[in-house]
Amino acid sequence: MSQRTIVVAFGGMSPEHEVSVLTAMQAISSLKDTDYRLQPLYITKSGRWLTGDPLRELENYKDLKKLEEEAIECTFSHDDLGKPILLETESKGFLSKPKKHSIYAIIPAFHGSEGENGAFQGACDLYNIPFGGSGVFASSLGMDKVKAKELCMAHDIPVTSGVSFNENEWEERQDEILESITKMGFSVITKPVSLGSSIGVSKADDRKSLIDSIETAFRYDQELVVEEAITPLMEINCSVLGHGDELQTSVCERPLGQEETLSFEDKYQSDGQGSKGMASADRIIPADISDELTAKIQNLSLKIFKTFRASGVARLDFLVNADTHEVYFNEINTIPGSFSFYLWEESGMNMTDLMLELVEIAIKKHRLKIGRIRSYETNLLSEKAVKGIKGLKGSND
């Protein structure tokens, strides 16, 4: 096992770039005393792929320009036996050669955009690399709040009412959209469709503040959703871990914020503890709710996790009417901040245990995939087939 390399991938061209760095540093720190060899894969804000020892220390990210100069360009490739590797595409020395790092599994620690929306997961599939967390399907759905809610509605999972629209639609029929939103009644919550960490999310209590919140949110995403606000509101979250039918739920948590809807600052900068990621947010764990409500949310979490075909670890966020205890699905985070380890600690699983479990799930999921027939034994480029294609082409002339 000492030769097995775990790649922790993070960063990316996302407004949640810094949050991703925090999560990755937590993962690297938790695995440093295990038998695995760790290799960072940092994607810069401009999209460069980098690796190297300087990327292991959070302190170095204070000067990104210097860090990028010290790190090494890299890419995915295969060795002579066809096994996936992380290939350094440059050398840091006159006589040194670019290094090749064999990949046992990858732990994606991205938040938002191409790292969490399935694009990176697709690259892993393309290179046949085991990776922790959800695949392309669940990842892309989880990053699209509108499509996620539509899927939930099709499976009788309760969601709040909302109006979605893109930037062009807003410019062309603003009054019509405002009228549709107003019919829901105030207050409402404006959200970018494809972002997390509460970036661009705001509450509006009247038409003017609604327009302001929409214009602000369009700075982060080209599509928005405006949803009815649940009042009085409790936010309750629950994490699910596993793959297929082998699933378990964590305890529930009740996040605490200065506003009814948690802001980015509430989640990552409360009490000046932003360097600890989501673990720094104020919360009550286990949530101070009834056993009945806890069980309801845990069961809904399992149902949603399965419906989305999620894998690894995810956090399910719910909106609860504090008076009636009506529960509404809010979103699924297929790569939750800090991997939601703080929820699993209550079940006796620390961050290291959680990361090791993610690696095992990645390997198990990959073995199931490669155990299937992945090619069909025929040669469409044989002489006979080529003649048939030529004939087909001639028939269209």
UniProtKB/TrEMBL annotation:
Its cofactor is Mg(2+); Mn(2+). InterPro entries: ATP-grasp (IPR011761), ATP_grasp_subdomain_1 (IPR013815), D-Ala_lig_Van_CS (IPR000291), D_ala_D_ala (IPR005905), Dala_Dala_lig_C (IPR011095), Dala_Dala_lig_N (IPR011127), PreATP-grasp_dom_sf (IPR016185). The gene is ddl. Its EC number is 6.3.2.4. The keyword Cytoplasm applies. Pathway: Cell wall biogenesis; peptidoglycan biosynthesis. This is D-alanine--D-alanine ligase. Binds 2 magnesium or manganese ions per subunit. Pfam families: Dala_Dala_lig_C, Dala_Dala_lig_N. Cell wall formation. GO terms for cellular component: cytosol. The keyword Membrane does not apply. It is found in: Cytoplasm. Mg(2+) 1 binds at residues 317, 331. NCBIfam families: PRK01966.1-4.
